[in-house]
Amino acid sequence: MQPKLLQAAQNLRPVAPVKFHISSRTDTGVHALCNAAHVDIQRAPGKPAFEEKQLVHGLNHHLKPEPICILNAHRVPSTFHARFSALSRTYIYRLLMGCSHHSEIPVFERNLCWAPGGGYLNVPAMQEAAQFLVGTHDFSTFRSLSSETPFQSPVRTVFQVDIQPSSGFLSHHYEHRGLEFWELKFRSRSFLYRQVRRMVGALVAVGQGKLTPHRIKELLELKDSRAFPPNAMAPPSGLFLKSVEYSEADLDTKVE
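-> structure tokens emitted (256 positions)
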């Protein structure tokens, strides 16, 4: 996404190189309902700064061929940073229950949800297990190793984990098939590499009866990525960045 945004901004003919700073980077196959970025665009001498609506329309004009749309823009202080000024990030993960085979996933939902095998999941057990993930913990067990691992603290504070029934695209047309959509919502200021996908995978394993709810607490206490159950990480297809939240003061449109 970032190279496409950069090219669209360059097409606005700035007099200095433009660099986008994205609030949240996502794995290949992960979706974003909403993301945030900040950018500095310097116009030619004598030209006024872009108005917010003017910038939105200009960027969207150059993004027409891409599955990307700028929803709104705010003028922000020079101290603002899209990544580091975020108060929280919210992800949702979409699960589909009732499929005995991946071919039963509705065609409009393919690559937009995960349909774990083994029938319906024990949602109450998953909800019980989810509460062990709320709060400030060392999430070493729930992160994948990367080049940044040695430089990142594994301690994160998860504000919210919810599991709620949801709906699918045009799902009222196939109610007779007994398919159930569920959303898992996670909110934190920041997450470790693949932390959400690992948490989802562990909760699904609880729903399948492969893990007990209390095992989630034990995994947290082990603080070892090697302790995570093999092949349990959820695929990227069901994961969506839902929103990035900022302080109202940071989005002050009166800043000159």
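Strands lie at 20-22, 31-32, 37-39, 88-97, 135-138, 155-166, 180-188, 239-245.
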